[in-house]
Design a protein that fits this description.
With 372 residues, this protein is of the alpha/beta class. It is built from 18 helices and 12 strands. The relative contact order is 0.10.
Amino acid sequence: MVEEGAYWLAWAQISGIGPVLLRRLQQHFGTLATAWNATKVELGEVEGFGFQTLEKVIQQRSRLHPEQLFTKHQQENSHFWTPADTDYPRLLLETPSPPPILYYRGEVELQENLGQKPMVGIVGTRQPSEYGIRWTRQISTALAKNGFTVVSGMAEGIDTESHSAAMKAGGRTIAVLGTGVDVIYPHKNRDLYKQILTAGLVVSEYPTKTPPDRTHFPRRNRIIAGLSRAILVIEAPLKSGALITATYANEFGRDVYALPGRVDDYPSQGCLKLLSQGATFILKELDELLTMLGAIPQIDAIEASTAPEQLSLPILSPELQRVMDALASEALPFDFIVQQTGMAAGSVSGALLQLELMGLVSQLPGMRYQKS
């Protein structure tokens, strides 16, 4: 029997089928294995599958053999996860467009993958001021010493400073690359890359040997936001990849923090814009920041021996209660729950994850949910 992960890989090879359409396929058919054997008429019922996309699927699907493809891919890429794997990062899986394949190198810590260890993204300009460098180092050091994993993109500037400071403080860090996990970019960060492999992970949605491409880096920013419980923007001009990351964070229901700067400083214009749109200020007292980050709900492990009827019903936040009210004893599809709540898909996804790990909600195949 071919494993579900092989079908995630096979579907990802078909041109025009990206993470969003893959998620819709899974929701519609329950598994990608079922979708693989669906007829043209059945595929046409999925939103986003127009005539041209259907033609590509029919033509290319006949030439692909999922099991053989998966075996060959494992030989060329020794370490990767698909959403069918239990080790696939939970927070990333709850976003609307999780990578169908996530490659990694380094030291895996399962608590991070399960969402039980908090991860915070730090992003910013490639050309920071001394002010930005100083605050990046201070914040990354404080986060690392208080048990947070620092996530960034290993670019020059703020990214590099955040990774380095976190490791220097004895903490873990994750670098999300816009290349293959075996390709170092920028090359001047080769020593940093080697250090990260011993104190964290490098991850990417691109297979080994993939060179840098300007289109890859904006896309990888959604992975930084998806892995993180909050995004801190240190310095960023108005046209900045850091603002793209902040936009994804808002869509995914993550908190966004920004470091204020002078109104006439070019590197601070993006941060000031974020603050005017409701981002939280990063202020001088880092204890306050740590307190706020610590207040973000964490995914706590529930003892397997604790039966649901033994748990007293907790008092839920208004957002969690709205999602809970939309559920029923029978399984409902994710899209229907989003419609019932009137909330953003990212917010509903995050709420369902929290409710599931509180023992109040059960997830069934095909992105369907019901009250436990």
